[in-house]
């Protein structure tokens, strides 16, 4: 069995690290990197520190409008598939790389395997929602992280090829958090940043819904951050850096510490040791949940509804008042966590076994 795996963004590199390891000995896998995340701090460092196999193809697509970026990916991935003739095309999540890979394979009648299938925010204005819905409807195998995801697919009439595997991100956190804790070079990040465990809040901002509001939107968010009693550390996404720097210069904020993007191991350490996470990221809100760190999600909805139980994850509007109110006064309930809804940490093995079983 030959598998072509398409990745292009930071969260996909993390998922591929554990799934590609599970696929060793099961199949011949070749990785295609679209170049959606092309900054070295958002791409190269993840392949190096997570031991992901070097991409067989790097398409170098880079940034652009959604249509331009997706269209260029579609053409270049099609060329790879025509040359390689794989048995399976494997995609992750909900990025433009995901939908481009799935469409290219589907039109060539190559079965698509979608890892992290069935997620829904029910906000079709989000590019991610459009990508995940369309990918699910043309996939042959749909590997779901939660029962909620399975139920979402059933509501849309998708039952064939659906499998509840658990979440590969849980596999990744369980493995790599211990790796990070044993690495003194990674643990040195606290001294380098001048912060102490549980004495800071960690934030990330990168989604289009956040940045499309321009400087005014970032200022509103930062005004809330400025009033929090702990310093707010932000590994700043390249998309957001210019706006963030302008906001700090204009308003004179001093409680906000912008840092360059960090590798996955350092991000795990920063997340697990924060007293709170504030983010518009789907992946980080879930990682915070795994590590029992309270999270404020800067969005009106989440595809990870399981994390909302017991106020471990709380949604906040992008207003100074609502962010500040939620960040200061939300208290999570330890008793609400209950049984892990994200599986047993062996999702990657289940995916590898399923692909082997169903393609033999």
From TrEMBL:
One of its GO terms (molecular function) is UDP-N-acetylglucosamine 2-epimerase activity. Pfam families: Epimerase_2 (PF02350). Its EC number is 5.1.3.14. Residues 27-356 form the UDP-N-acetylglucosamine 2-epimerase domain. CDD domains: GTB_UDP-GlcNAc_2-Epimerase. InterPro entries: UDP_GlcNAc_Epimerase_2_dom, WecB-like. Keywords: Isomerase. Belongs to the UDP-N-acetylglucosamine 2-epimerase family. This is UDP-N-acetylglucosamine 2-epimerase (Non-hydrolyzing).
């Amino acid at each position: 069995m030959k598998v072509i795996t398409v990745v292009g963004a930071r969260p996909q590199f993390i998922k591929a690290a554990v799934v590609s390891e599970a696929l060793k000995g099961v199949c011949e896998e070749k990785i295609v990197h679209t170049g959606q995340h092309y900054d070295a701090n958002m791409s190269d460092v993840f392949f190096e520190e997570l031991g992901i196999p070097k991409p067989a193809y790097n398409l170098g697509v880079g940034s652009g409008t959604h249509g331009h970026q997706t269209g260029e990916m579609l053409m270049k991935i099609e060329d790879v598939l025509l040359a390689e003739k794989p048995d399976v095309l494997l995609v992750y999540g909900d990025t433009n790389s995901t939908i481009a890979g799935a469409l290219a394979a589907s039109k060539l009648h190559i079965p698509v395997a979608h890892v992290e299938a069935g997620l829904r925010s029910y906000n079709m204005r989000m590019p991610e929602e459009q990508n995940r819905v369309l990918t699910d409807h043309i996939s042959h195998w749909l590997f779901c992280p939660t029962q909620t995801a399975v139920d979402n697919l059933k509501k849309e009439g998708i039952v064939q090829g659906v499998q509840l595997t658990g979440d590969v991100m849980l596999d990744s956190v369980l493995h790599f958090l211990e790796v990070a804790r044993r690495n003194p070079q990674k643990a040195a990040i606290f001294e380098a940043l001048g912060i102490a465990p549980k004495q800071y809040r960690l934030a990330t901002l990168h989604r289009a819904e956040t940045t499309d509001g321009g400087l005014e939107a970032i200022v509103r968010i930062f005004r809330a951050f400025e009033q929090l009693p702990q310093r707010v550390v932000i590994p700043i996404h390249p998309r957001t850096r210019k706006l963030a720097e302008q906001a700090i210069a204009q308003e004179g904020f001093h409680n906000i510490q912008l840092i360059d993007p960090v590798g996955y191991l350092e991000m795990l350490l920063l997340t697990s040791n924060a007293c709170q996470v504030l983010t518009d990221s789907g992946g980080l809100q879930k990682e915070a949940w795994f590590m029992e760190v309270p999270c404020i999600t800067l969005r009106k909805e989440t595809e990870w509804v399981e994390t909302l139980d017991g106020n471990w994850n709380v949604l906040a509007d992008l207003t100074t008042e609502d962010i500040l109110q939620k960040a200061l006064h939300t208290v999570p309930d330890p008793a609400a966590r209950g049984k892990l809804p994200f599986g047993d940490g062996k999702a990657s093995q289940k995916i590898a076994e399923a692909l082997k079983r169903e393609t033999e």
